[in-house]
From TrEMBL:
It comes from the Eukaryota. It comes from Albula glossodonta. This is Uncharacterized protein.
Amino acid sequence: SDNRSESEVLDLFGDLNVLTTDNLQNVVFMKLWFQVKLKPLLPFVSKEFLSNLGSKDLSCATYQTIVKGFNDEFPSLDKINHLIYAHFIYIFLSRNDTSDPGCVTITNGNEEWLKVNYGQYSVF
């Protein structure tokens, strides 16, 4: 099917194994990837891609950069927004093995925390 071939392209184009530890911590790099390079492919991300991404050693800043990339495309991702929430956002924010579990230390209050960590995904 078309979805399968598009998903395979994304898997090939967005192979998460190419992300080094430095890249995972680099906001500029992640912004380039998720807000520019992968932008046209975001509607085709798979559950596996999202789960893998949520388990990577991201900083809160790089996580929030990725959320912004998804958030900017929220209307066009309507068929997979629930997957993005369940398999990336929820997974990452639930982890206890990050330097700032839940990404709570760099925000000022609940409203800002929701905005930077969930964006429009707070509806889920």
